[in-house]
User: Which sequence fits this backbone?
């Protein structure tokens, strides 16, 4: 680029070309910045997702321990801690299982209620239909009038003078 204060004047074409080049460079840099930000957000999201999945797996593997603890707690609560026997351990484990099934059923009902409230993306569908309707009504780009006149003249068998433009 030339220095605007060096005493030489640039033509309008040079100024437009310079502005166009600078605008193109600006848009290119903005896109590069957006890509870098998105890449960083995706990386953070992936790490967060992996940590969440690992926590879920650890929790899933700890559920049997919770069931054992609940069964032994029931046995202790019914008098098994002082040597009087309490409930048979089979009943304690069955009661622990029943409590887990009841909790799973309750969570399933909550999930079903939430999924039932999920609706179609009506605004997006309406926008897509509107765009499709607009595109269907679009006509091809009209040809220049001179080209139409030349085609009509050729159809009639007339000779057409061509310009060298």
Assistant:
């Amino acid at each position: 680029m030339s220095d605007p204060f060096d005493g030489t004047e640039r033509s309008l074409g040079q100024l437009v070309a310079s502005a166009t080049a600078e605008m193109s460079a600006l848009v290119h840099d903005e896109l590069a910045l957006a890509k870098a930000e998105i890449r960083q957000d995706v990386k953070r999201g992936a790490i967060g997702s992996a940590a969440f999945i690992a926590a879920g797996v650890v929790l899933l593997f700890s559920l049997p321990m919770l069931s054992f603890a609940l069964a032994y707690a029931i046995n202790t609560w019914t008098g098994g801690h002082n040597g009087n026997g309490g409930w048979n351990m089979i009943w304690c484990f069955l009661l622990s299982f029943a409590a887990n099934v009841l909790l799973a059923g309750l969570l399933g009902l909550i999930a079903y209620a939430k999924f039932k409230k999920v609706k179609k993306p009506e605004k997006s569908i309406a926008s897509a239909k509107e765009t499709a309707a607009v595109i269907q009504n679009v006509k091809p780009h009209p040809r220049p009038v001179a080209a139409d006149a030349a085609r009509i003249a050729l159809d009639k068998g007339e000779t057409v003078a061509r310009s060298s433009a």
Observations:
- Residues 122 and 128 are 10 Å apart (CA to CA).
